[in-house]
Amino acid sequence: MAYDRMVALGVDADRFTYPSVLRACGELREVSVGRKINRRIRRRRHDLDMHVWNALVGMYVKFGELEDARRVFDGMAGRDVVSWNTMVSGYASTGMWGEAFELLQQVPGANTVTWNAVAAGNLKAGNYDEVFRLLSQMRNCHGPGVDSVSLLIGLKACGKSGSLRVGREVHGVAVRLYFDGLECVVNSLITMYSRCRIMSSAELLFRMCLVRSIIAWNSLLVGFVFMDKVEEASSLFREMIGSGVCPNDVTVLTLVSLAARFGHLCHGRELHCYILRHGLGGSKLLQNSLVDMYSKSRHMTASQRVFDRMELRDKHAYTSLILGYGMQREGHVSLKLFDEMIANCIEPDHVTMVAALSACSHSGLVTQGQLLFTKMFAVFGTAPRVEHFSCMVDLYCREGLLKMAEEIIGKMQFQPTPAMLATLVEACLIHGNIEIGERAAKKLLTMRTNNPGHYKLIANMYIFAKCWPELAKVRSLMSTIELAMIPSHSLLESVYDICPGEQDNYLKHGMYCGLSDRTTDTDSSSSEEVKCSEAFGG
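^ that's the sequence the OP posted. Answer follows.
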């Protein structure tokens, strides 16, 4: 280190040397060296200027040693705007909002940059009400005033919190200060109205733009996706292409994720064709999204093809494929992919474990599921979460292992979810185990859920067991909490419509209302694929 050699040679550092050395200590996190320099500075503080003390405060802030930074700050003979900004920003960056705001009130002539730093920190921490309070104080007679950055922070907070009223007020401020013509502000307004589910205002702002950048197009497109408006998003994408605007990775990723969420294979194939024709398929994130989209659409041949062509495969690609094969009840393929992933030194996360356990559940692989669940923490270091326990309950219930399902619910350290208990009640109804079903039903009733299907499920079980007093209590409870029954078809009504000789067989092999796949394994979208291929020239 040059500073150490300089000291060893007996050359004294001065007010020009120390700021550079202190900044280097802060960047390199050299705490011990920094403290040594601090002691040297204190011994000769009489001939050092403000730049040295500011650098010392900044170094301690970089270390995260806010108490030491404040001690230096309080001991300074004089302070400038850099001193105040460094200390306030240090508090804000570590989430010490009370200290940051208290110090902010003491800043003589605090500028907008200082206030924006605290507001941005609160935004990052999710303290949206605090952001609104700071913006309000900035606008009053004692505040420094707002600039375009302040408005962007405020609009982002409004969008994330869904505060439409405040968002409209910020929009009004932007108009009065003539910031509404700035591209960044317009794009933030479009995003804010989209997040607040006011797409009419978002689209009006978009149409009023004289020059629409790719960011403006993406802002409106993300709004349609946020509102699950598939056709509007697809129409806007076609309009974008027709306008000569070249979509970027964000555009395509947004649409692929929408196609994956709704299983719109036709739109997904169109996008894939566009990606291939325009050479946009090099992004690993985009390739992962395509694997996910085809997997969720149950088109495993296409998903596997995209996966095989990837040069670098990560846990996200493997997880999508494992989940896709699991949904097709090809659990052995899913487990083979899981083993391949481990062999390639790719560590699974909790989402991967959910996909693998779900695959075991759909394919009835009880032993393999138990082994995976045991390995989660012991081998892979992933602590089981409630969704992993849900997979195990699902696995046991599908195979009629109701006692094991009840035991794992009782042993887990989490509160069971209503869906978990409903799964057990439904399995008990199908397998005729009223004893366990009643215990699960009582726990489910104490949760007072707002799902009418849960109460109808419990009622059907009591009807099956001819427990009329308990059935009356369920109906009384429903009337007490004013739950309206949704129109549905009772499983038991279906059973008793079948001839007596087939009733047991139906109960044994019938589909679980809450557990089974609602769609068939057959890909019914082949005609749509032909249309897509024809539309893009094959």
